[in-house]
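Ticket #4471: structure output looks truncated?

Reporter: J.K.
Steps to reproduce: submitted the chain below (956 residues) through the standard prediction queue, then opened the result file.
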Amino acid sequence: MKSLKLALIVFCVFGLITPNLSVAQHGADGADGARWQFGGNGGDGTDFVSIRPTVGAPFSWMVQGFNGGRGGRGGEGFIWNAKPEDSAIGMPGGWGGRGGDLSAIWEPLLRLGVDGPIYQQSVFVEARAGHGGAGGLGGNGFQGGRVGDAGRGGNGGSAHAIAHGGLDVTSRAIGGMGGTANGYGGRGGDGGNASAEAEVTNPQHYVRATTNIWMNAIGGRGGNGFDQALGGNGGTSNLGDTANNYQILANGSQLPLLNLDIVGRGGDGGNSFGSHGGTGGDSRIQVASMLTANRYVSRNAGTQYPGPITSATFKLFGGRGGDGLAHSRVTGHGGGGGSVIVDTQGEASAAQKLTIIARGGRGGDALGSFGGSGGLGGEVSMGTLTLVGGEVDIFLRGGDGGHSTSGHAGAGRTVESLMPKYNGVGTPSHYKFTVQGGDGGNLLGSTFSFQGVHRLAGNGGDAVINSFSQNAYLSHGNNEVRAIGGMAGRGISAGGIERAGRALVSFRQTVMSAGSLTAIAEGGLSHQRTNGYARAILDLQAADGVDGAITGSATARPAQHGSGPGPLPVASFAGSAHAESFVLRRNGSGLITSIANSDGGFGTVQSGSSRAKATAVNSTMASTGVPRGREAYASATALARADGSLHSANHAISSATAVSNKAGEAFAVSRALGQYNYGNARAEIRAPKGIAKATAEGETTQWIHRSKVSSSAFSHATTNQPLILTSSAYTSFRHTHIEISTAPFENFAPSAWNHLLINPGQTAVDNFTNSNMFIDQAFDFGSRSTQVGNILAIGKTGGGQSLTDLVNGDFQATNEFDLTLHLHPAVQGSEELSLAFFNPVAYRDGFESLTVKFDYQGVNVLHEEFTDMATAKAFFTNRIVSLDSLVATEGLERHFSLQYDMRFSSTGDVFGFDFLIGSRNQVASFAAFSSVPEPTMVPIMIGAAMAMLLRRRRQV
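Returned output as attached by the reporter:
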């Protein structure tokens, strides 16, 4: 390439030169065919190389290539000695001529100055290749015969731009457009390809902090197809490797820092009126070759001065598929989106900041009324990129599917990719890696089906990230890996089989430095159908001797919806979520943290299940002499939500597990909200000392449906150091019974419990009070229905029975709830609310001290302190406090707050009691609850909060 350019300069210092030195020109139009003759083909535009050497002021230069000629019209069909009943097809039209290829080169004159060679400081070169000629029309048929096939449009020419300069260099190439075609049998021409080169020489007398290179390659647009002709395909963008790259030449001095900005875009496919739109052009790049040191060349006896790359940005886009537009007789389909191919073969050097943005082309729309389908989104593929280090931000997104007016919409493209690989010990390597599936196309128009076939919107594309056995450098920074499923297209009806894309992250690596990594999987959203499944699996294992804090966090949830003009997507069926995080240190010092969070998401018919598990393991041995910092922390949170039709049960399943080893803490929180909800939390500590805490909550949002929760915390300690907490709590809007075991002799009895039912059902009230004759006579459900009664809340609270190896100790259990209730309007002014305590439970010494405080409407109505179990048992046995006689109330809201604080002198001590808030029988009014109110009128829980804490104060 270099020798060719120098040879051309010898021929002409200024001006235009073609390789064969012939006259450059546009292609001639083809001649129309006579009867029985094909139309003539258009001539090709001349290929040529244009060279413009100069020096001086900042320079901009644009060159246009030569166009192909138009194809001639086909001749008329003819039958010799024809009879009236005979007919003949018209002759085909001629093909359009090809657009001329173009290479535009700006080559500076070398003038020797006082301080060395002089080069143009700022250069801009743009090469636009010639366009293809239009295909000729088909000839007329004889005596009613069919019109002849239309000629094909000519392809656009290829464009190549080369720019040389001193500091700021821009080379831009645009492929020629394909020629149009008009008529059945024709096809628009394909767009031309595009590529670019750049060269920067650092003269000694130019002094500046940075050198900038911009390289743009844009494929030509495919030609349109009219009257049932096909649309042409878009041209390809080619960058990288050997021919389409850049070079840096040193002249005896260190090169300035380089900013590299690369843009590649495939050409759009041509539209078609009555047939298939063209496929979008691809964008291809050999990215590793642009980051290697061999791009730097010295002119001084082989001495190399490889200046570092400050910033390298690659923006790559597939061309859009052509639309299938309306036609009076036939179907038009959208073309597929163009692909992005990121070739990563070869070793790449470090860039201080590397950004790669790649997006597949959008599928073309099908806008006809004959069942045409939208095009498929373009794919994105990238192999494993090998880097030394640097700050890396990579975003890959599949193309969106095209819309359809009467047929099926196109699907969003799935993207699956491997993480970059890092080579180089101790080199910084902060990274953010995001993969997103394309969105499915929407159904336009108003018809549910076409020719008896139910129309389908496009599925969202999956997003998949895998990383296995590759050395990762967290470099004491925050790193992120994220997969986002594509949105499902919107349909005509509320129901359908379309689904949003899945999000799958699997990251299992040996890490060579401290730092943090967050893995996020966001399942795609759907406006009406099914949300995508989300799974994030994170496994970080520190190599031997890696010191410092290491944090792994895995999150699985629905995609976060950004602000926009449209409504928020609401799926009928939510996707499930699964998050796991595992962090291991073998030998080293520093905190180990493992966090897992999952959210199954909301569905109007059924919400998704949710699972989360976090494990932190520190296996450092004390004999290694590593400093004391060997703590391990594990936290898992799972949330599942469901709220839909009263006629279909909605299952919300939530499970969280946290396990911590080596002097650690484990916290597990599980929450389930729905008609049928099940929450489970488990915390486990396997260390000589530490804390384990598990909390599970369940809340039902509809009438008489079940909410179950369970929680537990375990210890495998063999010394007298650990503090173990097993806790359990839930609230429920409606429930048939309250489930809790306060029996002090059962294994794993709660160390702190606070269970509450809001507006309990009649069965729950009867089961709760029938064991106590006094309370049963004073309170009952008090309604003519099984829906609404006089009892606003029932609950159990208490603490103790910490499962440790300590025989004696001093512990504290604290429970509290803060609750606001909205009363039915008929209750106001006709009922008097009371607070009742009953059924105290005590074991062994019960407690050392107990403080109970109760506030009603912000006014403290009870504040008692106890130091012996007998007095406390007497106080909480069948005690009724009349609330409304103590505090004046108005309006429909009532606020309650119960605080319970107890200290234990022994690990086996237990104390607790039942409580009830409601109206007593003697003032109950059946008329106030004579009928079942509307759901918006029933008492509801506006807010509830519970906290359970158990801690060891001192060892005896």
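Triage note (M.O.): checked the attachment and the full token line is present. The chain has a mean pLDDT of 78.
Status: closed, working as intended.
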